[in-house]
Structure to design on (213 residues):
């Protein structure tokens, strides 16, 4: 038996070896969008039943596009954007209870909430609904509570997680259990537990209501 025969016998067959994807037609794609070049590992795109939001590259400050889902094709270079942050936008998340509300966080140490009209933006949006201040360094991630309306979490490079009541515009708790940069955070289905990963190579399961790890 030759070496080649032995090698082929050891190769696992795959049902997906000859599966090929077919790209959408260009008119059904979102074209001519200059996405952010920020190296931060977070979401540059967020989608809900009405809109797609995309963090874009801009000179000075931070901005993101919001497009109705059916607004496909080539986008105008001067399309309207959400432009209220003074630093690059690092993360965006739609409110699970209101498809017209989106949260964003930024290098400028703030979290902002925005209202998007049903038809999308007709001009640059610079006026936010709520601004949340408390972080001392840039804010890396935002996460909505899956079952409690108006509760939003933000994680910053100050190693803190703020639990915000966005209806009141204030923090109801600060989680101070991380010793290094937070890499990600995610709720379980009912929001009773929060999982985080950190630069210190630890995964933490936190009960956010009481701040217990």
């Amino acid at each position: 038996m030759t070496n080649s025969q032995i090698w082929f016998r050891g190769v696992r067959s795959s049902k997906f070896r000859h599966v090929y994807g077919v790209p959408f037609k260009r008119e059904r794609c979102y074209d001519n969008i200059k996405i952010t070049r920020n190296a931060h590992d977070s979401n540059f795109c967020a989608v809900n039943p009405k809109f797609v939001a995309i963090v874009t590259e801009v000179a000075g400050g931070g901005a993101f596009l919001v497009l109705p889902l059916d607004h496909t094709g080539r986008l105008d270079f001067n399309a309207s954007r959400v432009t209220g942050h003074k630093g690059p936008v690092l993360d965006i998340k739609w409110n699970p209870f209101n498809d017209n509300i989106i949260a964003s966080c930024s290098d400028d140490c703030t979290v902002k909430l925005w209202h998007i009209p049903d038809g999308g933006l007709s001009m640059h949006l610079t006026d936010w609904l709520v601004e949340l201040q408390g972080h001392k360094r840039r804010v890396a991630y935002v996460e909505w509570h899956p079952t409690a309306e108006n509760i939003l979490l933000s994680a910053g490079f100050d190693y803190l997680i703020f639990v915000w009541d966005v209806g009141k515009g204030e923090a109801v708790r600060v989680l101070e259990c991380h010793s290094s940069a937070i890499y990600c955070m995610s709720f379980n289905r009912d929001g009773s537990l929060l999982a985080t990963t950190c630069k210190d190579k630890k995964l933490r399961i936190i009960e956010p209501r009481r701040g217990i790890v």
